[in-house]
Amino acid sequence: MDFLVVSLPDHRLAFAIELDGADHDNGTQQHRDVVNDTAFLSARLPLLRLRAEEQHTRQNLEVAPKRRVWSVQTARQMT
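The line above is the sequence of DUF2726 domain-containing protein; the predicted structure tokens follow.
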């Protein structure tokens, strides 16, 4: 994971961000990504995957495709 975001004041894990670069396009790394995705899903913790090659601003993250935000919203609903 590249970033872990916590909520205050209890420092509880809110979600994680994984920046996927070109190395995430090979089969071995894709398998590792599935393992990580499964672990986060099992723990009911949202994982937001973003392409490292793209520029990410608050504005474009707020209108990100639903597939990127879905896991965050779903995990929040599960807690």
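Note on the example: The beta strands are 3-7, 12-20, 47-51. Residues 3-78 form one domain.
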